[in-house]
Amino acid sequence: MTDWVQSILPKPLENPTLRVLSLGAGVQSTVMALMAESEAFGPRPDCAIFADTGWEPKEVYGHLDWLEKQISFPVYRVESGNIKHDLENNLNTTGHRFASIPFFMVNKDGTFGMARRQCTSEYKLKPIRKKVRELIGLKPRQRTPKGVMVEMWMGISRDEVQRMKESSDSWVTNRWPLLEKEMRRYDCLDWFRERHPQRTLAKSACIGCPFHDDHEWSHIKNNYPEEFEEACQIDEKLRDPEMDGGKFHGQRYLHAQRVPLREVRFNTASETGQQDLFNDLMQNECDGMCGI
Ligand code: SF4
């Protein structure tokens, strides 16, 4: 019986104008890039693009430096502002008020909510799209000529299939090479471990991403105390009355417990019964750009 995922995957484009690998520098996109180098998915991509929010852990930047040396196609690092700086200054990428990351909210009436997530679109999708347009020779605001077709490779594995999303640009066709191979996240980890037993793969996400689960937060706290301190400072700043500019009618927190990050006692999911928020929420809500 044909797997339903296989039945909905698009056929690889025959002669696209450009093949781009969307590189998040996490487990899946790293393995996809390394497999692409050995032409496991057919012709290699013309390039990879990494959208840098400016607030990834040091280990992700170090990993990216290593990865670039393993592949022959170029890796472009693009950015659209620095999310940490923008959070500190209550700005977004256009210099207007507030970078909206998915904060946990306590509303004025005491009810709980979550802020809208605009960060993936602003800090990842936008700069990647801009770079792709530049690579195919388009000027700002120029219409895409007929016949231009870009194939965008997304590192989504079989267990994250709900993150698949078509591109909003008609001239971009998303392709999911790991799904074509029916690879799950653990297959990616096994593939990597076999070939690079001395190395580990980091989860790629902003240091202060509210989608971190307790395991991730305590990993940062215990191994990268300076990065944890940065996240604590941003978390405190979010509730500075001078900062919300009237936008938020409540208190914003980085952690799901809705207490200051510095005071959170991190526990394992089995102890608290708390969900693995990164996996659950990212799979349900992410555009397939963060964390892969
Ligand atoms: S990692 Fe989290 S905070 Fe960073 S862009 Fe993605 S969703 Fe937003």
Textual characterization of the structure:
With 292 residues, this protein is of the alpha/beta class. The protein has a single domain (4-208), classed as 3-Layer(aba) Sandwich (Rossmann fold), CATH 3.40.50. The protein contains 11 helices and 8 strands. Strands 3-2-1-6-7 form a 5-stranded parallel β-sheet. A 3-stranded antiparallel β-sheet has the order 5-4-8. Helix 2 links the parallel strand 1 and strand 2. The model is unreliable at 270-287 (pLDDT under 50). The structure holds iron/sulfur cluster (SF4). Residues 53, 101, 117, 119-120, 123-124, 205-206, 209, 211, 290 line the site of iron/sulfur cluster.
- Beta-strand segment tally: 8
Helix- and strand-based class? alpha/beta
DSSP helical segment count: 11
The CATH architecture can be named as: 3-Layer(aba) Sandwich
Low-confidence stretches: 270-287
Largest sheet report: 5 strands, parallel
Q: Into which percent range does the helicity of residues fall?
A: 25-40%
Task: Indicate the mean pLDDT.
Answer: 88
How do the helices and strands follow one another from N- to C-terminus?
HEHEHEHEEHEEHHHHEHH
List bound small molecules: iron/sulfur cluster
- Provide the CATH topology: Rossmann fold
Per CATH, the class reads Alpha Beta
Query: Strand order, biggest sheet?
Result: 3-2-1-6-7
